[in-house]
């Protein structure tokens, strides 16, 4: 069986496992106040070159729900309708008391015209107050934002006094995509708050939340603790992020996933299989017919995104651990299918 | 520097690191539906011999806040005033909407007479409805409950239709204490819900929540997800618990911590230093004077529990990783102090 | 100045004021346990002819947020996008922790095809669980549901095990509309829970929540108290509802508002002014041009619903207190305008 | 049957009923933006002589839960253990996510030494952050704070940067007590936020919340709406408070209740019946034996506060509506009892 189900199906990059093994029996203080966490914070700060607070958390939903909890209860976050916080977090944001206002999406990216419409529609005390914009980069459909996009979005946020929060669960893949024109400094520059994803880029687990806007900084550790989001052995997060940003491992892993996806994408294209959305990161969405689906479904693990009449939009994901052999094996499967 | 600060100051037992390393690159499905998590569940169920659901979570506060979220909003949990949920979870339980009603404690154990008083005081619609009793075993003061205690508590819970929830962050240490007369089957028998702690007993992280009462089982995974409490790479939890319950590693590690604590306890006793509370698990609470405190504080890491006039109640904790050498080194420090 | 701004712009029906005055100095017990509240409950139960619990609350948003709080945290309520709980309650439902899933609307009524699509899309533990359908009758656009509609909706709710909750803020107007084919018994028959609105139908304030489904009944008074929703002088609610259901005052007042709206509607139609939506209750939505708007805006109070290029959809509302003179005065204003 | 059960057992003062009747059919805008609410705000501001925002709410628990919702989620409110928010609001404060930290009480008043102890005990990120002190004046035991008390409390609040919030459900009775040395201006001067109670002082319902501290003012109407705490016909609150502060009706009613309580208190004292607590407001707490209790319980409505062996602490409450005849009738009952 081949696995292209997601980018968290394996454990972690070997460098990370080595770091964890090497430090395993050193005693440290807990809760992220250890020397490794501090060094990882310092390292990331030096890369971002902005005044910020950094907190390490275990997973994406946890990070999003903590981040969005900085809002006042009557304030809402705006996400495009395909956004992770709107669909796939089991109501985590609403549980914190905040409404998720949705906009249309264009290939998984926020429709800025609709955004401005939604902001201005909320105008009296009987409605929530839009206060934060949430986007993910790369998006849930594997597309990425450009520098021009973020400039435009920042202007809208400034105009209406909204915070911009970027979910970087797959930031490595976004920043190493061929068509990307953003740097991590740009992200830090445009966003009020964002997170750098580890879980989907070769860490065992872990996300680094960067808080730049001073209004959002106070007492964030208390806020995390109250949501069960401070890891006792916080060092595990520090060690992993320190390793990820050593020798650019973070980018190397992201780039690798993208490269493997490129090869996979080409295999589909070779057989004239169309893609539901054009992108150049590690998620691909081929549109296949039911016959092909039946042929491959017992040979490969992947997800069905959507069923459209006789066609299926499916999702293949590559990871830091995807090998050239696995891609070749998949090519062989397709080749066999088309032989007949 | 010696470290007796807590039982999560090191990484994990070597057996666990080996298991994680060995399985690192195997692809599995996420969110705890993998074969390792399933095997760990099956293993624990076989030990408990009750019909139950098992969920693996990352940390203690997270587990407690998810577990207590099974209550209806107007229902309250009762904890003794020293209980972890009352003091050290930054209001996590209240954030879920539930009042924590407190009882007196007797050496860290719940005062059952006060418990019954508190239950019966809540009698009209202007008050919360007591619905769950929370205890920890071993307690925050290192003491343990006896079989007779749990029998009595179960009777009270049955009388007033309350759920009994046992926080087992340090269950291994409780069950391997010299004076213990409970088995893990007994725990499963008396409790409606309890958790088996990994973080404080040699896992990198992880707690196994056991839900026995059928009323509390439905949709618990949704409840976890909504609180950011489902680990993407759920296998990491499954692998760790499978290893912990292989060859009784769980008990071996707990017993080791207790044994190291016994030795440490004797060292204090040897110098006529009294203990704030008598117990036989891995937390000890010597009462030391300020001079001794000044002498050792730069040589050993530990916590101050309470300052009483000229005396300090301090806390020393041993772990799965505490070595005989460390204990000896500490003995030498004390010996040096008393030489003069 | 004429007022057609809303149906809560005046105080209360004279019969209600008389009842309040007459009973003013009688001492009663508080919180809705008085003889008037009990009599009002008994009266309403006799009209509904179903086994139910009845609770009196002060206002609509309060009633909705209490009613929807019966859900488990991970359960969601489905409303059409124009629903009051989605738009005009300042995030009250989300504050209770519940996501509001939205469907399309057809003239303010729920699109049942879209409803079924939204239900079935929610299928895994990463998503909320749809558990309640919320509709309002009459709707926010003044339209009403038919018996056939409710039959169909009930079937969908039964199929997917959803509760049906009907917001009856303007139930009197719905049940007395010309095209209506439902009785209050039908409402009680189809719904698991619904409320009978007083505030918008001649009471000073007050809504009567009817809970029919046994699963939703337990401890509802506690749930209300916890949300600040139990009025100390609960008698005020009991007295008002007792008066409303004495001699069918409830229906008389609703019918009166509808009749005044009919007259107002005809005045607009006479001048070929189109209506944004066809309905026969007490809210009318003429589409007027900017010139007419400028002419009347200082003579009449009303709301702007939506601006469409050169046209404005405005909202005129009649109430229990609207007089024939007021309608005539408005006719004169329009007549003057069209004279030129 | 005589009624001394509480101070909200009757409707309202005749002046208030007259005002409501007189204005009943005037159309006004909703939600507290009407001319009566504005006039009431202006009137109260002129009496307080501080820069403040004023919001009218329906009841006490609703007011408390809205007021305390200004806190950040990880911030806690401190109340003495007898405080209304701790005991009698069904967990309303916890439902908003905030822990209620309790201090000892001295005759229902906060023990300031214990307060400072509780504040300083909360010192790390694993604990909630104390941020607001809640007191009620008069207290739940009918006692009142002095100017010296509030000076001292203000100093503690300033020292630790805490907000002081005063629950004035029975403020009229406190300010008109014989031993009182505070004015309403003093209350406004010492508190960051407080409310002036109407429900327990002759209004049908209603509390006026005064927000002085600028940090607590923004978007409070949104916060209220989200909690279902904005009355549609907000005028009802404005009219009542305008009437209460016209010709000092507020004080006249409070004074009347106190005077009636004085007479009642003397009747008990005459028969050597001791009081559980000494106070001079409208709640009295005689300690009676079971025989007396049995004699009067079918002749008078009152509450049992506490049962102590053979004695009962009972509570008698007088109101704006209590008459001299009622007091005399009660005197006759006691006289009859002691005759035998």
Question: Outline of this structure?
Answer:
Chain A contains 14 helices and 15 strands.
Describe the structure.
Four copies of one chain form a homotetramer. The first copy, chain A, has 340 residues and is of the alpha/beta class. Helix content of chain A is 40%, strand content 19%. Chain A has a seven-stranded mixed beta sheet, with helices on both faces. In chain A, a hairpin with a 2-residue loop joins strand 14 and strand 15. Chain A is globular, with a radius of gyration of 20 Å. The mean pLDDT of chain A is 96. The A-D interface holds A 31, 69, 72-74, 97, 125-126, 128-129, 219, 221-223, 225-226, 230 and D 31, 69, 72-74, 97, 125-126, 128-129, 219, 221-223, 225-226, 230.
How many H/I helices of chain A? Answer: 14
Question: What portion of residues of chain A belong to β-strands?
Answer: 15-25%
Count of distinct strands of chain A: 15
Helix and strand sequence of chain A: EHHEHEHHEEEHEHEHHEEHHHEEHEEEH
Structural class of chain A: alpha/beta
Helix share of residues of chain A?
Answer: 40-55%
Low-confidence sequence ranges of chain A: none
Mean pLDDT of chain A: 96
Spatial arrangement of strands, main beta sheet of chain A: 2-10-9-8-7-3-4
Q: Radius of gyration of chain A, rounded?
A: 20 Å
Q: Termini of chain A, distance in Å?
A: 22 Å
* Oligomeric category: homotetramer
The shape of chain A, in one word, is: globular
- Sketch the major β-sheet of chain A: 7 strands, mixed
Pair of chains with the largest interface and how many residues each contributes? A-B, 52 and 52 residues
